Amino acid sequence: MNIAEIFAQGGIAMWPLLFLSILALGTIIERIWFWSKILTREREVAGRVLEAARREWAAATQIAQRAGNLPMGRFLYAALKLLNPDPEVFRLALETSANEELATMRRGDKVLEAVIALAPLLGLLGTVVGLINSLGSIRLSDLGGDATAETALGIGQALISTATGLIIAIVGLAFFRLFQGFVLGQAKVFRQSGSELELLYRQAYAATNGKPHRLTTPLSPEPPPPPPSVSPKVIEKRSPGDTF
Hints:
Shape: rod-shaped
Oligomer: single chain
């Protein structure tokens, strides 16, 4: 029995299931292509921008602008392109850009969710219709004869649509969870890189009196240690006539 015969025996419900499978397959391929281009480069771009921000703010802006084809580059450049903004405005720019990029990364999730929900139901509907057609033709006088065997065969064929719907839903769910994991990982990278960039900007803003783009002295990645405590000394009282 080949695929064409299985499709024909599955009944009319196989046509919407075929549409859902094509829709899910196209979405999965597009998302795999999207993630394959960015997963290996996001941390590299973030590291280069942060390293440049410690030395020269303008250089960090140029690096982020050149990486504009990646979500991380657009995320960091959204704040770096502002000219000497207040630190709070800088933080809001990072948050807004992060929300936009994460929304782009979730593109296709609604399609997969719809496929996961509809495929089993359509398969079950096809099975119910097949059972109605098979059982509706049974007569009491035909029990135990050839008609009963044909009815059993019809019931088996009606279950094909349910199995097809479940297979489509399971595959769609597996890739949906995979892509969700990628989004959560990128959200963590965005949060970490954005927090570090904001900290560097606040240091540059304070060191340059609100003109971080004029930064020429490299920033320390960590705040300097506090000065050592000076132990108090006992001061001896001397009389006016004493000499050293």
